[in-house]
Amino acid sequence: MLEAVKKEIDSYREQFAAFEREAGDRGPIGVRSLRKEAFHHFAEQGFPTTRDEDWKYTNLSPLTRLELGTQGEDHLQASDLERLRFGDLGCPRLTFVNGRFSEALSTLDQMPEGVEVKRLSQALENEPEVVEEHVGRHAEYEGKPFTALNLAFLHEGAFLRVAPNTVVEKPVQILYLSTEKAQDGVSHPHNLVLVGENSQFKFVENYSCLGQARYFNNVVSEVVVGDNAVVDHFKIEMESLQAFHVNRTAVYQGRTSNYRNFFVAFGGSIVRNDMNTVLDGEGSHCGLDGLFVTREKQLVDSFTVMDHAQPNCDSREVYKGILDDHSRGVFHGRIIVRQKAQKTDSKQSSDNLLLSDNALVNTKPQLEIYADDVKCTHGATIGQLDEEGLFYLRSRGIPEDAARGLMIYAFASEVLSRVSYKPLRERLLDYMAEWLPNGELVREAE
């Protein structure tokens, strides 16, 4: 093991020992046992390297050579959210600042009927049997060192539970906000979302930053979608350009359920989006939409798995990347069709737009099919802006920068326009336009 990596693991070992001393005998026995087992697995395995197939295009040495402590405490006011593009979306909000719950920035009194929202630490104290039933079950940690590290420090995060037969119009927002006091710190939020049968629910998972601190957010979300439930899940990653972000989402779907995930990434130095769904109920549907926009030396790596475990299920996946300067993107999408999953209908695509000769993307769509009565397709494209399209726009009096912006915006809006919550969709489209040269002309021309 490289000396730098060993040193970093020793640092986490010291943090875990301090965490155990502080936690003492608090928490259910099953969770305490899970923490110990998960940390032992992490310490034995260490951080992934480019020798690991699932990480071959992502060099984590800028992260693993850092010695990270606890993110510093910071107290903000509601007015501070005005500086955030996605701080206030006009919906109920559970807010954490540098990994700590902020009552001042949360609006828990606005929760709709049938929706329970609280801190995971409260659920561990008041409903330990519910937490024990689900944590670590859907996001397994074997072979997943970052998931193991998250489970080792399992304590804080969001707990969302939706009662059966509940229809919720506005989403619930989980806001994780980092400030300059997060400098050289690490946080391990764990989100547990349980949606009852026949319910309809939306939620936003938002990671934003005030400032340009260097820190590491290591997140795990476990989502259980009950029979015949409909869930829209929006993940917005707007971390500091100095920050590291690893996010694992594990979803379990019941019979005739419908789960849609929208992942949008603009920030972060190194970002890893790990998305795993298991369609374990007949007739279920899964949709994954992703967009990452990078510049400078950013790296965004998306690793997705859609596991068709039952018959008559369908899935659709569209991931798009827009890369400028010396930035890099990775897409590895895997569709698994089990032998029992006859009549599966699955489509997957990865489309990437390179705005610079120095930008680079690696894409690997993949099918693993063990059934014989299925319809599955996948594909990938990598290219630059179409010169004929640019000429057409310029011939009609549109300046070159604006013409380029219009074409990039059109490429991105295929994903963004499918965001079902209008306030979030409009802010994403606005931000995309502002990212472009002459972006104000793009929105006016829309």
Q: Which features would summarize this protein structure in a list?
A:
10-stranded mixed beta sheet; 446 residues
Notes on the structure:
This protein has 446 residues and is an alpha/beta fold. Helices cover 25% and strands 37% of the residues. The chain contains ten helices and 21 strands. The protein has helices at 3-23, 29-45, 61-64, 120-126, 128-134, 145-152, 387-394, 400-416, 422-435, 439-445; strands spanning 69-70, 93-97, 100-101, 115-119, 158-162, 172-178, 185-187, 190-195, 200-209, 216-225, 230-238, 244-253, 258-265, 270-279, 285-294, 299-308, 314-323, 328-337, 344-354, 360-369, 374-383. Strands 1, 4, 5, 7, 8, 10, 12, 14, 16, 18 and 20 form an eleven-stranded mixed beta sheet that branches. The protein has a ten-stranded mixed beta sheet with strand order 3-2-6-9-11-13-15-17-19-21, with helices on one face. Helix 4 (120-126) crosses helix 5 and helix 9 crosses helix 10. 47% of the residues are buried. The model has no long low-confidence stretch (mean pLDDT 93).
